[in-house]
Amino acid sequence: MTIASPSASRVERARRLLDELELDGLLVSRNAAKRHLSGFVIARGDEATSGFSGSLLLTRDRQLLLSDPRYLEQAASEAPDWQVRRTRGPIRTELPPILAELGIRRCGAEAEVLSHAAWTSLAAASAVELVPIDAVLTELRLRKDPAELRALEAAAALTDACFAHLVGWLSPGTSERAVAWEIERWFREHGAEDLAFEPIVLVGARAAMPHGRPGDAPVVPGEPLLIDFGCQVDGYRTDVTRTVFIGEPSGRQRELYATVLAAQQAAFEAVAPGVVGTAVDGAARAVIDAAGFGEAFTHGIGHGIGLETHEAPMLLSYDRPLEAGMVFTLEPGIYLSGEIGIRIEDDVVVEEGGPRRLTGAPHDLLVI
After folding, report:
1. How is the chain split into domains, by residue range?
2. Got the DSSP string for 158-182?
3. CATH assignment of 8-140, given 3.40.50.1980, 1.10.390.10, 3.90.950.10, 3.40.350.10?
4. Which CATH architecture has domain 146-357?
5. What is the mean pLDDT of residues 84-107?
6. Which letter, b or e, does each residue of 84-95 get, where b requires 16 or more Cβ atoms within 10 Å of its Cβ?
7. Residue 43 has what pLDDT?
8. Which of 58, 87, 282, 333 has a Cα at 20 to 30 A from 204?
């Protein structure tokens, strides 16, 4: 059952861009944007640059889904409100006649998705003015609607359950790679559509690499185990990090953990509609700075999450007010090369009355 089915209101919001930007049409090529507007899900990796199959073409009175023969039946089923148009060749030969048929002379397109070659060849072949619309299409997905929030909540519940499973399953000697595989196995066997990303599982000093890859290092008593993982439900994703200890941590390890936890709580309490995104980052950074580890917090406090694992808003640089419906991570960390890495991360939604955590796995220091 689809939780986050596209609504006509999303298409109408996209159509308003035509008047706002003085465009005749919108060419939508990003997988997340295509799914958001139509419900069509193309195979991972089959972006517009590999033949543009599944791209959407929206005008004031038409909505076309361009599909090669591989996806015709699927497109008709998943996007019943869109007219499916069969295509075969590259974008430079297939699209110009369609643009001419629809009277499109100025068309919005995603410069961050179409390759330079596709962009230039399409412009030359069609004599249509192409206008970058990446930023304005991103705006359409900044605030999640109720259907999207239901999907995010379902993914969060599954992620919390996976962590509870790991707590009972983990034991000394298990390798980072084995933990990562157990996460994937559990998610796939319990209804996840996919992983949100490849899990990050790192032991001890290896956890000082914020995005390190799991290897053969074993879980060691007295060392931290950093687990950064998430799943996908109906397209919507989670991104959660917990740092646990197998055996009793040292006093210094407890101090570092308490600092990161306090930083996350400070960021959480700073979240509210109207608060500038950079202020949330600053709230967490102030706690870590005061503890003397400012240089060891090497990334921003969080990023938007939804149909993509990393999307707007990026709080480190988001100098605009937060709005109800925005969903993002809060993930402070301390990374001391050669010694330790600790990160605590949750997914949070902004509501009129303040923030709400979507993910609810325990935050207190956990000794297994």
Report:
1. 8-140, 146-357
2. HHHHHHHHHHHH--TT-BHHHHHHH
3. 3.40.350.10
4. Alpha-Beta Complex (3.90)
5. 91
6. bbebeebbbebb
7. 73
8. 282
